[in-house]
Design goal:
This protein is an alpha+beta fold. It is built from six helices and eight strands, in the order E-H-E-E-H-E-H-E-E-E-H-H-E-H. The two termini are 25 Å apart.
Length: 189
């Protein structure tokens, strides 16, 4: 009797697609790319590069590289992809240092990193000068509280400077999207 390989639910977070008319990746084609790579249960969420899928592969970094290569082959441009599993997303949501349930989704954001950034990257930021905006670091994630939204956030602008993010793939999602991805990557009981 052959043992069936178990699958893991993942979320692929694509950076900078479908913004301002550049790097267009239609969600139907993204689903198709993931299916052609052999992944199952493929779904997309919004037009901003969120996909959920199941795979027997256990290495999220390998999945991200595979997806980046396939997207470049299909569309002719590179897109940074971060792939995280459902358990990690649930841990991110559970470790949020801000009262997510009391805030609007546009006020709370999670910036996901391809690797854990060192504290030295943030040393030059004087958090007090950005209040009431705040950030906290977690496990390969930065939680950002921006009461007036990301578009008006001076702290978000400072956090996006090369001294902070150079050499690391990063992508940000608002809390509504984080919560939806947690839901979509949940394993049915």
């Amino acid at each position: 009797m052959t043992k069936k390989a178990t699958t893991t639910k993942y979320a692929a977070l694509l950076r900078g697609i479908n913004v301002g008319g550049s790097k267009k990746v239609p969600m139907a084609e993204l689903r198709s790319v993931l299916e052609e790579l052999g992944h199952g249960d493929v779904q997309t969420y919004l037009q901003s590069g969120n996909a959920v899928f199941s795979s027997v592969e256990r290495d999220p970094a390998a999945l991200a590289r595979e997806l980046e290569t396939a997207i470049e082959a299909r569309f002719g441009f590179r897109v940074a992809c971060l792939v995280v599993d459902g358990a990690y997303l649930r841990a991110v949501a559970g470790a949020c240092p801000f009262p997510a349930a009391e805030l609007e989704g546009k006020q709370l954001h999670a910036t996901f990193f391809s690797e854990q950034p060192g504290a030295e990257r943030f040393a030059a930021l004087d958090q007090a000068s950005y209040l009431p905006e705040e950030y906290r670091l977690g496990d390969r994630v930065l939680y950002l509280y921006a009461p007036d939204g990301l578009g008006r956030s001076k702290l978000a602008e400072a956090l996006a400077r090369p001294a902070v993010v150079k050499g690391i793939d990063v992508t940000t999602r608002n809390w509504n999207t984080v919560a939806k991805l947690v839901e979509l990557t949940a394993v049915p009981s």
